[in-house]
Write a structure and sequence with these properties.
single chain; about 250 residues; alpha+beta; Fumarylacetoacetate hydrolase, domain 2; eight-stranded mixed sheet; 6 helices; about 20% helix; about 30% strand; globular
Length: about 250
């Protein structure tokens, strides 16, 4: 994560053999990087995404302050070999939601949420062959958390919208023209982004981790990731829920 140099695998002596061992390694990243955790992400929230990286279910990862960029910012390409953009539903917490033994219900989680915002993630991995790295190593690798751009909060009307059916459209612009377009709905995110959010809360709670007021959670791509190249502009249009844009890498000449 510091050098951007890919590795084949973690050294055998410290290679995690289980999800929890992977999370234990991931938990050390904050002190190793001397950086603040400002939120969380979920990887592999669709069956297609799980099959692609050979995992049986979603993976949780930390979002560090250094990984979040303002809208319209030039998001650096450094260390990113995946080169894809993922439009995502993100939620902000207005109050703490502590770890506990009993699982949280969706309504309990949403009661702690004070905002929903459109987001784009540019995922990344330190593994040269992340597709075959395996679940435990991917979790140790912060579940492929890359760079994030969050849009402005949507109006509170989002609470009455069926996010599972809400359409999101995305476009890649290169040299002033659209070169790729795609669309998806919240159904791609464990059936509903709110269900994915609740999964994340319960996954962390199982590990003894609570979420804090002010933290954001990006719930996973709602469509097939879009390939990007340096200089590309990425726009994700969430309709009534807002718009989010970023510039990937160097601007075109």
């Amino acid at each position: 994560m510091r050098t951007g140099r890919p590795i084949d695998a973690l050294p055998e002596a410290c290679r995690p053999a289980s999800r929890d061992a992977g999370y234990a390694i991931q938990a050390r990243l904050s002190s190793a990087l001397c950086d603040e955790v400002v939120g969380w992400k979920i990887a592999a929230t669709s069956q297609g995404g799980q099959k692609h990286i050979g995992v049986d279910g979603p993976l949780a990862g930390r979002i560090f302050k250094r990984q979040v960029h303002p809208q319209h910012d030039i998001v650096p390409t450094w260390g990113n070999r995946m080169k894809v953009a993922e439009p995502e539903f993100a939620f902000g917490f207005g109050r703490d939601i502590p770890a506990r033994s009993a699982p949280y219900l969706v309504d309990e989680v949403l009661a702690a949420v004070d905002s929903m915002r459109p987001a784009i993630e540019l995922p990344a991995s330190r593994f040269a062959d992340f597709v075959n790295a395996g679940e435990a190593q991917l979790i140790a690798d912060n579940s492929c958390a890359g760079r994030f751009v969050f849009g402005a909060p949507a109006s509170q009307a989002w609470r009455s919208i069926d996010l599972s059916r809400h359409e999101v459209r995305a476009r890649i612009d290169r040299n002033g023209r659209a070169v790729a377009q795609s669309a998806g709905t919240g159904a791609a995110v464990l059936g509903d982004p709110r269900i994915a959010l609740t999964w994340l809360v319960n996954e962390l709670s199982r590990l003894g981790i609570g979420l804090c007021a002010g933290q954001l959670v990006s719930t996973g791509t709602c469509m097939t990731p879009l390939p990007v190249e340096p200089g590309d502009g990425v726009t994700a249009d969430f309709g009534a829920l807002g718009l989010v844009r970023l510039q990937y890498g160097e601007r075109s000449a």
